[in-house]
Amino acid sequence: MRPGLLPLLAAIGVAASVACSGEVAVLAQLEGVDGGDATPLKQLEVRALPYDRDAIFDELRARAAQPEPAVPDSLLQLQTDIQTAQDQWNAATNRWNTARDSLRKLSDALEAMRRRGERGSAQYRLLFNDFGDQEGRESSAKRQMDGDFARFDNLQRRYTEQAQRYSLLHEQWAEDAYSAVDSVIAVRLEQLGREAVADTTDDNGIVRISLKKGQWWIHARYALVYEELYWNEPVEVTGGDPVQVLLNRETAERRRIWR
After folding, report:
1. pTM assigned to the model
2. Crossing angle, helix 122-177 and helix 73-115, to 10 degrees?
3. Tens digit of pLDDT per residue, the chain (259 long)?
4. Which of 7, 26, 70, 162 sits most deeply, having the most CB atoms within 10 A of its CB?
């Protein structure tokens, strides 16, 4: 449960709870850049679980015959190197675009002077010299941009190869370590006398789920480039005011994605 969210969700018209059940109101969104408006996470599957899935997976992981494969340091370093290379490539692209625009403006100015018969003027000669200098700067900026892209592309290829090898290794381990997870969950649900409930957020990133009174966990995940946002938020449904849950970057656990 996240305090302070009632004003944020008050406008969605949450219905009153009935005596034997209650309601969870979930708002899923990503924070805006530099204080801008938040972006709602539309059509995000949100599951209300009557058990703590993390506890179940932790228990199975602890009982696994083999330890979980560690992520190679080289793979983590490649992620950092790729981000640095991408930033350098983007900066070089911006410099090349600026140089190309300046070159185009000089070319247009020279062409206009030629049409006016001013090729012999001192101003034309100055502009022509400027054009030659700018042409060299534009060519240099393009070589830098192409070189930065080649480095970025090479790092991405290396990362993909290593990530696929590690992903396969981890999948093989997980298939064995978590082989009993479905049966464990089935037993837990039978003991609790409840079922998991799933729904998706609307265009405003909001979903309302009616649940029996008691302890629940609100679970969802949202994939980014190299990681996913993972939520497993415990809530207590009392049948009083709706329980309000905010799913965003701050409340998420960040989990790396190897692909």
Report:
1. 0.74
2. 160
3. 444 454 444 444 444 434 578 999 999 999 876 667 899 999 999 999 999 999 999 999 999 999 999 999 999 999 899 999 999 999 999 999 999 999 999 999 999 999 999 998 999 999 999 999 999 999 999 999 999 999 999 999 999 999 999 999 999 999 999 999 999 999 999 999 999 999 999 999 999 999 999 999 999 999 998 889 999 999 999 988 899 999 999 999 999 887 6
4. 26
How many of the other CB atoms lie within 10 Å of CB of 16? 10
Q: Which residues, including other chains, have CB under 8 Å from residue 62's CB and lie 6 or more apart?
A: none
Amino acid in the structure at residue 26: V
Q: Which of 235, 156, 181 is nearest to 60 (CA)?
A: 181
Which residue type is seen at 185? I
Q: Which two tokens stand for residue 205?
A: 């990133």
Pair type for strands 45-49 and 197-200: antiparallel
